[in-house]
């Protein structure tokens, strides 16, 4: 009987689903290189008894063709992940930053926006040296100092992914490599991971032809993929492009039970409807048995988040109204018009989130895992 990856089936255990997924979907070409880098990094920090946070960041793509011209993507720029990574480093963690390639990176994020380009901070004559303008010296020096410290102390490892498949392979590999860290490992899953994908067996090789002259006559000549079984996930039907995606198998429970049983695991829940946020975050916590789910709404995520802990406690963390950053449109994030007013320097919400997370992590290390009542380790 054919079973689609991720489909619920009473006879399939999470381990079966894992084995099936990783057998059917190709290992990324750079996984072995990532694995070597991560192993060395983790060994170093195990030796120094340092905590290590795996921060995931940015969106995942869902390619529609093997030789990819078209793909499905999402909104995430990686702000949450890149900003949080900096605060983890400041709080004494080493950070493995598993990020979407070309999304924001810790430290360089301050100057990589098109609206905040580093070139606007520089000055110099045609032949003379290029220097940072006086107004920005202090701020840039501070970012540079922190960046150099992370490099010198070897506390930041950057590992990129692009597709959802690459993300899943990397997450599993890193989770297993982090085993020796025991409770000193922390997962901070800020990436916006696609819930749907095209499994390898239903991916077309070449660019899907949109022009009528090249489009396959409706059903006349089955493609190679069609001959092998189901229709390709993305195919033309007359003039329409049909996309029929499979659900991404839910590996989040496996992260707790199988891959990283001693680590602290924090996942995020994104919603757009405020009425759903708390219940969806609680539902995710119950379903995946993580230590903490951080709920956030698309439109307010930069200044408020909801912590839902394993004991069911709910707590909002908010940036005070006069500390919210102005957006590039000149309006403040809370809708007030920008300009000189009673505002104090902007505060990043991650500067409030990360110390709270670190403190819960300390508590877990000192008092044992609250999800295991007798404090026993897995
Ligand atoms: O990048 P920004 O623009 O700053 O935006 C940040 C953010 C809004 C993307 C971030 O704060 C956030 O909420 N990320 C999670 C989005 C979400 O709702 O994910 P989810 O419900 O599909 O998944 C739940 C959790 O499991 C997430 O932590 C996700 O990273 C993780 N996950 C999901 C599926 C999967 N296959 N693997 C995962 O690790």
TrEMBL record:
<feature type="region of interest" description="Disordered">
    <location>
        <begin position="325"/>
        <end position="378"/>
    </location>
</feature>
<dbReference type="InterPro" id="IPR035929">
    <property type="entry name" value="CoaB-like_sf"/>
</dbReference>
<feature type="compositionally biased region" description="Basic and acidic residues">
    <location>
        <begin position="225"/>
        <end position="236"/>
    </location>
</feature>
<feature type="region of interest" description="Disordered">
    <location>
        <begin position="211"/>
        <end position="236"/>
    </location>
</feature>
<protein>
    <recommendedName>
        <fullName>Phosphopantothenate-cysteine ligase</fullName>
    </recommendedName>
</protein>
<feature type="compositionally biased region" description="Basic and acidic residues">
    <location>
        <begin position="363"/>
        <end position="372"/>
    </location>
</feature>
